[in-house]
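Residues pack. One example:


***
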Amino acid sequence: MPLLMKIYVGFLILMILVNSVFWFKYGGKIWMLFYEFFSGGYLTLMIFAYWYPNVKAYFGAWSVIPFAIILACDFYLSMWAKLRDFSPALKDVSEKELEVSKALSVLVASPGYIVGVLLSVKLLMPLFQAT
């Protein structure tokens, strides 16, 4: 795994921890905390699986399903979700700041999405090859 990707994985794990502290401190919806852990953790696993064959061995074509669900949920959360509904503390935050936070969230997750798509293609390719 390239050094920049190792740094990114560390940053992603740090962001998951920071988000969980935010949700606990400001009384965010608990299901959102579980989603953050699951989606961030799954993206991290997919990154490791892409570069480490011994981790990839545990992934099959079925692994694409949770990834697709994460992509769909993240798309919804970044495009249409009203963040104020997730935590009472966000009622004082301006709409512009909320939009910037959604954009930053997508930006931070983008390398994970890209590697997840690359891994998904590798996992699905054998299903479509002629025998």
User: Anything to note?
Assistant: The chain has a mean pLDDT of 88.
